[in-house]
Amino acid sequence: MKEKHSETSRLLEGWRNIDELYHQYALSMGLTRMSFVVLEAIYRLEDHVTQKEIVKLTHLPKQTVSVVMNTFLDQGYVEAKEDKDDRRKKRIRLTKKGAEFSRCVFEPIFRAEAEVLSTLDPTERKLINRIVKELENTLVKAIVEETCKDNS
After folding, report:
1. Residue 66 contacts by C-beta under 8 Å, 6 or more apart in sequence?
2. For residues 67 and 59, is the Cβ–Cβ distance under 8 A?
3. What pLDDT sits at residue 1?
4. With contact defined as beta carbons under 8 Å apart, do 120 and 128 qualify?
5. Strand 90-94 with 78-82, pairing
6. Are 82 and 90 in contact (CB under 8 A)?
7. How many domains does the chain have?
8. Do 108 and 149 fall into the same domain?
9. Model-level pTM greater than 0.90?
10. Backbone angles phi, psi at 115, to 5 degrees
11. Does residue 55 share a domain with residue 22?
């Protein structure tokens, strides 16, 4: 049993180290962890996204996305326009300033990620994706089952 925990610890340590690398990079660019994640979502989705779509993609609380969005509005990185079909919704898009900043922040990251993945052959990339998805699904199931046991 101890060996299983050791393997798990090594795997999680690797994930945490990568997460910390992204966090330190975000800080070096003047972004918090949350603002980095939100800005990346807007940059990746590109055209007129809603806060609801950002919440869904990032898994961040609605309030967190709202606070980050207001900061980006104040900084001139994004603009919010009323949705022509549903006036209750605001469509978010990067301003020219926001698009330039986002390119500066994310393009080096995307190149580095592509370079890392290019060291793997297509079969290895597919295998990693499959394993990560399997781990995610299994972990979600295990946590739900454990939570239910603890609350019984």
Report:
1. 51
2. no
3. 47
4. yes
5. antiparallel
6. yes
7. 2
8. no
9. no
10. -65, -45
11. yes
CATH of the domain at 55: 1.10.10.10
Whether residues 127 and 98 fall in one domain? no
* The residue to which tokens 């980006």 are assigned: 72
Cβ atoms within 10 Å, residue 12: 10
Place of tokens 């605001």: 90
3-state secondary structure at position 82? strand
d(CA 17, CA 32): 17
The residue type of 1 is M
Give the pLDDT confidence of 45-100 residue by residue, as tens digits: 877 889 999 999 999 999 999 999 999 999 999 999 887 887 778 889 999 999 99
**Closest CA relative to residue 103, chosen from 81, 77, 127:** 77
Phi then psi for residue 147, to 5 deg, are -65, -40
